[in-house]
Design a protein that fits this description.
By secondary structure, this protein is mainly alpha-helical. It contains 15 helices and two strands. Strands 1-2 form a two-stranded antiparallel sheet. A hairpin with a 4-residue loop joins β1 and β2. The longest helix is centred in the middle third of the chain and has 36 residues. The radius of gyration is 21 Å and the shape is globular. It starts with 8 loop residues before the first helix and ends with a helix.
Length: 387
């Protein structure tokens, strides 16, 4: 695609047509000469074909002509994931169970080795990274991708692996070796600590590690300011998760998927529409925080208690978010009347949940995220119209 097209619209059109064809194949596996039978022969429930097409379009737009930022993430998910699947299915003996699947250590090692070779080759061919960095950077990319792949579910590795590698490359392609070693140590140290404390949190070890991966993704996308509110959302979710019944088989992973997808959508909107969306994104994340608190209290303690608890939390967030936005942590100034925007959004989220808490008993994460994003999206659209 980068060889054929320099504009975004042909790739967007191709991805859209591909998504349409994949959705048709899901309705009938015999369409398009039986191609659907080949794609959907995987025994587990997966949306991997959909996520891969989305990743291709997303990376093409975000790479802005820097081929290494597009080609390397897709090479990793294409070659390493295939190697892991083939190795695990044919030679996998040492298996481990994740929340949504069963995988093998042999497959993880195959992903790591093929990814390391692919990363070193492409870094040498398509980047100016110092040769001394290539081996270390390639190893970190491959190991990070292998961990994300092992923690993913429902085919989301086809989205999260290339996007995670893309953001890592964007931030650390030219970093000195000392920085790379520090980042790797922090990441794998935090992952190990999270797995060790998983039982205390009431999580499975792989779920605890997935929270760490998601947090590093937020830091890579939005910096410290962009990761602050999602970190608060994760913390409050872990505190309220037992009070809010999950409708799926893996509610913890569904929450992480919703949180990460919301961040990627907002980041994509800000990158493609023009004005940065970091401040509107944080309002949406704050709404998710308040939503979980209010819903958990409304279900367990009643609406009166939820209302009394929501008021000081809203006041605190109305003061906290604009203060952080103006402190220099964000890379742009907040919009006018930012505190009022935060107050209106959080009050609306609280009111709707108190009026109809049963509406959020099923598919809780996506419904709360959609509600929390309502006011920020309207105001961002208005801002686009004015500019």
């Amino acid at each position: 695609l980068p060889v054929l097209f320099s504009d975004n619209w042909p790739v967007v059109a191709l991805v859209t047509l591909s998504l349409g064809a994949m959705l048709l194949l899901r309705r009938s596996a015999t369409m398009l000469g039986g191609a659907g039978a080949a794609i959907h022969s995987v025994g587990r429930r997966s949306l991997g074909d959909i996520w891969l097409a989305v990743a291709v379009g997303y990376l093409f737009i975000r790479s802005e002509g820097q081929y290494i930022l597009y080609g390397l993430p897709l090479a990793i998910i294409t070659l390493s994931d295939a190697a892991a699947a083939l190795t695990g299915s044919s030679y996998g003996r040492r298996r481990f169970t994740t929340e949504a699947d069963e995988k093998s250590w042999e497959g993880v090692i195959a992903f790591l080795m093929v990814g390391w070779i692919a990363a070193m080759s492409m870094l040498l061919l398509f980047s100016d990274a110092p040769r001394g960095n290539v081996i270390l950077l390639g190893l970190i990319i491959a190991a990070f991708g292998a961990m994300v792949e092992a923690l993913s579910w429902r085919g989301l590795d086809n989205l999260y692996v290339p996007l995670s590698i893309h953001f890592f490359l964007q931030g650390f392609l030219d970093a000195p070796p000392q920085t790379l070693v520090l980042i790797a140590a922090l990441f794998f140290g935090a992952t190990t600590a999270a797995q060790a404390g998983a039982r205390f949190l009431g999580l499975m070890p792989h779920t605890a590690a997935a929270f760490v991966v998601a947090l590093f993704l937020f830091v890579g996308i939005g910096g410290p300011f962009g990761a602050l509110i999602p970190l608060i959302a994760m913390t409050l979710y872990l505190l309220t998760r037992r009070a809010i019944p999950g409708s799926g088989n893996h509610p913890d992973l569904d929450f992480l998927g919703t949180l990460s997808s919301a961040a990627l959508i907002w980041y994509f909107i800000g990158e493609t529409a023009g004005p940065t969306a970091i401040h509107h994104y944080n309002v949406a994340m704050a709404g998710l925080v308040v939503g979980y608190i209010v819903l958990g209290l409304a279900i367990t303690k009643g609406r009166a208690v939820a209302t009394m608890a929501a008021l000081p939390i809203i006041v605190a967030l109305v003061a906290l978010i604009p203060s952080f936005a103006a402190s220099g942590l964000a890379f742009s100034m907040p919009p006018r009347h930012y505190a009022l925007i935060v107050a209106i959004s959080l009050t609306l989220v609280t009111a709707i949940i108190l009026i109809a808490p049963n509406l959020f008993r099923r598919w809780t994460p996506p419904r709360l995220a959609a509600l929390a994003s309502l006011v920020p999206l309207i105001l961002y659209a208005q801002r686009l119209g004015q500019s």
